[in-house]
């Protein structure tokens, strides 16, 4: 019974469309944009957030060294005004590295708000222990990144933009802490702190 009703319904639809030549073509024409819009939706919603912006990329300061491993580095991803990434530098024969969170206040100005890593001049909080709250600048001046301000308030930028390999960007973006960082403010309470 169900199959005979389907055959009758399909026949009726075919006759209606064939009997009114314009109705069939209007239906096809009006359905086409809808199909195009539906097909475009998956491309408009990426699986992972796209992180880009003025601060995004790899930045290096290598003055005073010929050894690439001794360069100061920031590797940053940016989503809207949120900036998350890693930092590293070499001093007194030791390597220091960690994570950073900043918030852009303009296309060239940002404030570092949280940091963690190997204790040194940047932080006193190991990343496994949580985040240290800071209020330090991050600026772009003349195409360079700066993390200090001169006494007169002017920008001191010595980090050059260098290419960041796609694999490195994808690997950083896939890290759980980075996904959480790009999505929301961090839980800054040190681990093990009482409620």
Descriptive key words:
single chain, alpha+beta, eight-stranded antiparallel β-sheet, globular, disordered N terminus, disordered C terminus
Characterise this structure:
The structure is a single chain. By secondary structure, this protein is α+β, with helices and mostly antiparallel strands. It is built from 4 helices and 10 strands; from the N terminus they run H-H-E-E-E-E-E-E-E-E-E-E-H-H. It has helices at 2-19, 21-44, 166-174, 176-183; strands at 57-61, 72-79, 82-91, 94-104, 109-117, 132-141, 144-146, 148-149, 155-156, 160-162. The strands form 2 sheets. An 8-stranded antiparallel beta sheet has the order 7-6-5-4-3-2-1-10. A two-stranded antiparallel sheet has the order 8-9. A hairpin with a 2-residue loop joins strand 2 (72-79) and strand 3 (82-91). Helix 1 (2-19) crosses helix 2. It is globular, with a radius of gyration of 27 Å. The model is unreliable at 1-50 and 189-195 (pLDDT under 50).
